[in-house]
Amino acid sequence: MNTIHYTKIAEELNIRQKQVSDTVDLLDEGATIPFISRYRKEVTGSLDEVQVAAIRDRVQQLRDLDKRREAVLKSIQEQGKLTPELEKKINGAETMSILEDIYLPYKPKRRTKATIAREKGLEPLATKIFEQESFDLNAEAQGYVDPEKEVNTPEEALQGARDILAEWINENAELRKKMRALFIEEGIFTSKVIPGKEAEAEKYKDYFDWSEPIKKTPSHRVLAMRRGEKEMFLMLDSCPAELQATALMEETVLKKAANTAVEQVGMAIKDCYKRLLKPSMETEVRLYSKKKADEEAIKVFAENLRQLLLAAPLGEKSVMAIDPGFRTGCKTVCLGPQGQFLSYDTIYPNEPQRKTAETAALIKHLVDLHKIEAIAIGNGTAGRETEAFVKSIGLPKNVVVIMVNESGASIYSASDVAREEFPDQDLTVRGAVSIGRRLMDPLAELVKIDPKSIGVGQYQHDVDPTALKNALDDTVMSSVNGVGVEVNTASKQLLTYVSGLGPVLAQNIITYRNEKGPFKSRDEIKKVPRLGDKAFEQAAGFLRIRNASHPLDASAVHPERYGLVEKMAKDIGAKVSDLMTSEELRAKIVLKNYISETVGLPTLQDIMEEISKPGRDPRERFEVFSFQEGVNKISDLKVGMKLPGLVTNITKFGAFVDIGVHQDGLVHLSHLADKFVTEPTDVVSVNQKVEVTVMEVDTQRKRIALSMKSDPFAERGSAKTKQKPKPKVEEEGDMAAKLALLKGMFR
């Protein structure tokens, strides 16, 4: 790769060039981001996962640019038009847009107005006019009149010349660069409802007559307007003022004082703008704003997903899982400590059957029979009613009852993964199993579901699907490897995300485990078919084996460093297992004595931290959460109520909170804290337990406005609560309706 690119990336990320080049070498060798950031700190200078991913993505962009550059050079060279000056310009192009601007005059075209004019022999006339000198325009144009070429009058000759001029102006790389900047800096998104569709487009009401500078439009509004346009409810424009644009063109193109030739060029400028340059620039700026909006939405989605995946696990406990319902009853399964399926029943605690005595007796029997320690209840239809019933039947105090977010459970239950796991059970049983298992270990269960279906995204159906998938895959891989995977109990889906594995090797590990029994050591993993040295190097540190022959096999210490840890133990007259249990022994180790060319202080510190808490789960400890008793549906809410809630989704304009009424409420950005907040993620995270105050309730439209302020009803303009002015769509006067509307638009 061009070393100039390394310098460029280093400057952009504010790191050293060698860090970039060494990281690129590791990536090119097939190393994964989790492996590089965890086990190659000496090589990269301790770059974290975010920095390594940024290098990977930027390198790919620059390589794509180089590939396109080669194609452009080849095309122009084949035309015999490549000059040293042009080649220098092409090689100096730093973005794809600039490169395409340079290439535009040489790009093979379909038959255009300018092409037709050239065929009529009018290019010399266009050239003379473009010099903008004073001459007898009509007499000159008369010389190009030729009925055989379908040029019957001087005006027809001038029109053809202007068509050629318009194309030349459109292909002016300097002008296109200026115009692009103008569209981005001064462009205005203007949205209007398509006449006659006002009723159908009610959810887009805020955009019926809306305008906002492109550079200030937040991600969610860009995506909302584009969706409204796609659904043919809105007309969307994205241009600067026309006079401003044509003035810029005249300033760039016109060279002389007014004369007849200059007038012709001026006419060509206006034609060029309306017919060629404006559509081209509008397309570019829309792609630019869409890309920025996608990046922001994907960033929010990925962070929400990370927080959901890394939610505190209940752990290895026997669990009863209930998928609640009314008419068809509640599907109930019991699971063992490793999530194994034990039994299935349907219970009817709710209307219309309401078999309360029979249901209570069965639940108590199952709790006793399977030594149930926790009951997981899905938070969907009949969830709160079922929770209230279960809590009322007098279960042992050691049995906790917990509501579980069931988003995506139905997707899992109908998937190939679920059919493979439970071929003899129907959808409802599989859904209940998923609810129970996601309480025990959210990460292990949620990796089985397409991340887009988990319900924590913002406009996930509107963003670039490839970019979204790549970002979410990165997030899942980072989360899985950050926690570590027990190789003897992990599912194929969980193993798939382990660094260096993938679906084929994950399946091979499962097959080997089923045939040979549990792995007794990390070294045994090498015996798995097709799992070579490279894959083992990438994966081993993230795979755990409890009660293995080597004590470090249960830790995040990489096998390549076992010898180093054994030397540490030997040097102080101890065993590795002693080091892992004795803080006093670890204190005797002088790390600087073990620094070498390949092992530096960062790796040594990681090793010491890991052997002090081998295999420790980095996720938070599980805490039982309960919603407010007696508040089960939206009609139970009253303005001013203070309620416990769980953050379910975070957007750029606020956070959605589950308060147990089957409809999440919105805490707008301006009500997330007493202080001014610019980024919701600075104050809340997915699954965070919060206390909220009910501000407004619209029962008919199922919209709830909440606040996390200590005194949400205080004077809005007071010094304590004053917020920066918000654009029209987020005015506080109708906050509940307008902002809840936004949620409906990205569902």
From TrEMBL:
Record's keyword annotation contains Coiled coil: yes
GO terms for MF: mRNA binding; structural constituent of ribosome
Keyword terms: Coiled coil
Coiled-coil ranges from the UniProt annotation: 158-185
Domain of life: Bacteria
S1 motif domain span: 640-709
InterPro entries: HHH_9, NA-bd_OB-fold, Ribos_protein_bS1-like, RNaseH-like_sf, RuvA_2-like, S1_domain, S1_Tex, Tex-like_central_region
CC terms in the record's Gene Ontology section: cytoplasm
Pfam family, one: Tex_N
Region annotated Disordered, chain positions: 708-733
GO biological process: nucleobase-containing compound metabolic process; translation
Official protein name in the record: RNA-binding protein
